[in-house]
Amino acid sequence: MSKLSNCLKIIMLLQTHQMLTANEIAKILNITPRNVKAYIAYLRSAGVPVEGMTGRKGGYFLGDSYYLEPPDLDDGEYSALLLAEKLLTQKVGFPLENELKMAIAKIKSVMGDVITDTLPIPSDEFIFSLGKVDKRRDGINRTLTIICEAIKQKRLLEILYYTAPRDERKSRKVAPYAVVYREGSWYLIGYCHLRKQIRTFKLVRIEHIALSDSSFIYPPDFSIRDYMTNIFSIIQGDVYNVEIRFFHPASVWVKEKLWLPNQEIVDMEDGSILFKAKVKGLIDIKRWVMSFGSLAVVHKPRELAVSIRNELREMDELYS
């Protein structure tokens, strides 16, 4: 934690409590009493009236004339906080929902009646939807907390993971690199020692998780942003140049969104469009194309077109 952060925390602690010793402050902030004395000396040099009393019942306290004012939020900033709370507390899969509510409640109590506790438009008319969310979310909060701790400490995770396509459970050791929230689900991105490569794990399929005693070194050449670039949804794979023709009205629907940062859309004379992009992996984009039915046809790559044709053949056999 930075010097400024610790100094602000010391002010807030002394403002909340009547008097605290250096040892008490050090224990709360997880620093040494020597650090506390150095920070207090810095605060005094900055004009903050931190007083001290020696003796068995002594300690540090703030002068009566000093008070750290709450953050000066305007109506727009406060409304943004309220909207964020509403967005993330509407059963959309956010695992720290209760903690967020408590944090917002504390901000509201500090702000008092300075700003009205209302949204810019009526609450009943402002409804968020992030699509489908995971049904089994009971243990997500704990799982996510353990993963974040493992990332912070650079420690391996021991997990029992269920792989749906193969209907199997396997114990794995994973070096956690990042967590990703995508389309209503949380995912862990990390190096799997079982498969000897970077893999993606859906949190609801982690049936057991624990911190390992072993540590790992985060690869200096790895970037989660670069890794996720050009992935259509979440599943990684080889790089392909895709070209897909969309007919009306699918052409309108596709043009309304940015699906990939490198996408290019070419308008055709008959009102259709040609969607071009570079993607990593074909599984997710195959599902996307098939969701449009006869309103979409793959021009490139051949592998994607053949895979969809085989899928349609199997579907035809099932329905016939």
Q: What does this entry look like structurally?
A:
The protein has 320 residues and is an alpha+beta fold. The chain has four domains: 3-62, Orthogonal Bundle (Arc Repressor Mutant, subunit A), CATH 1.10.10; 75-125; 140-224, SH3 type barrels, CATH 2.30.30; 239-319. The protein is 36% helix and 25% strand. The protein contains ten helices and eleven strands. It has helices spanning 3-16, 22-29, 33-45, 75-88, 97-111, 140-153, 224-228, 250-255, 283-290, 302-319; strands spanning 50-53, 59-62, 155-163, 168-182, 185-192, 197-202, 206-215, 239-246, 264-267, 273-280, 296-300. Strands 6-5-4-3-7 form a five-stranded antiparallel beta sheet. Strands 9-10-8-11 form a four-stranded antiparallel beta sheet. The longest helix is centred in the C-terminal third of the chain and has 18 residues, at 302-319. It is elongated, with a radius of gyration of 27 Å. It starts with a helix and ends with a helix. The model has no long low-confidence stretch (mean pLDDT 84).
Largest sheet: 5 strands, antiparallel
Strand content: 25-35%
Overall number of structural domains: 4
Summarize model confidence as the mean pLDDT: 84
SSE order, one letter for each helix or strand:
HHHEEHHHEEEEEHEHEEHEH
CATH topology of the largest domain: SH3 type barrels
State the CATH architecture of the largest domain: Roll
- CATH class categorisation of the largest domain: Mainly Beta
Supply the number of helical segments: 10
